[in-house]
Amino acid sequence: MGKRKLSITVFLLSFFSLLISLKLFWNLGIFVDESGLSPNIVNGGDFWLTMDWLRLLLLLLLCVVSGISIFSAKQKK
């Protein structure tokens, strides 16, 4: 039962982190549109813009993997 609670906790933390990052990325897009700037200027360059996209991708993958681990642990019983 402890491992299942840990899996659920990891999923919830990664899911909320993904939601927060998506909202911040959305707000960045709104700011960029209203100010007439580009996202790489606001992020500090192309590298950091790429890291921003990579963070979203990694959080999404973490959510998927942790969600799968919750359901696979449930089916093993």
What does this structure look like?
It comes from Gottfriedia luciferensis. Keywords: Membrane, Transmembrane, Transmembrane helix. The chain crosses the membrane at residues 53-73. The chain has 77 residues and is mainly alpha-helical. The protein is built from three helices and no strands. It has helices spanning 2-35, 39-43, 46-76. Helix 1 (2-35) packs antiparallel against helix 3 (46-76). The radius of gyration is 17 Å and the shape is elongated. It starts with a helix and ends with a helix. The model has no long low-confidence stretch (mean pLDDT 92).
Secondary structure topology:
Elements: H1 2-35, H2 39-43, H3 46-76
Shape: elongated
The helicity comes to: over 70%
- Rg from alpha-carbon coordinates: 17 Å
Helix tally equals 3
**Main sheet makeup:** none
What class do helices, strands and sheet pairing give? mainly alpha
Order of helices and strands: HHH
Strand share of the residues? Answer: under 5%
**Strand tally, please?**
0
Low-confidence runs (pLDDT<50, min 5 residues)?
Answer: none
Distance between the termini: 11 Å
Overall residue-averaged pLDDT value: 92
